[in-house]
Amino acid sequence: MMLRHFSRQVHAEPCRQEISLLADEVLLRPELLTPSRVADLYLLALAAANGGRLATFDQRIPADAVAGGTESLALIPLSATPGTTVL
Questions:
Q1: Domain residue limits, the chain
Q2: pLDDT at position 14, please?
């Protein structure tokens, strides 16, 4: 139910601004860039550079690692309703 509600609010557009995680102005905290976080941080930085938001269930993404990351991370809340399963 939550995901269905969230998906109605999504508006997707192509990214026009390219980024590199190797740029100092993009990756603010290089110590947080680990192999398991490369894709998440890249997508977050790409969303931030293009004025978008990265929607995710993953609450472990260190948003402050990339420029504009805190404002560009949209955490999808997990349903707390008993008896529901989140896949």
A1: 27-80
A2: 76
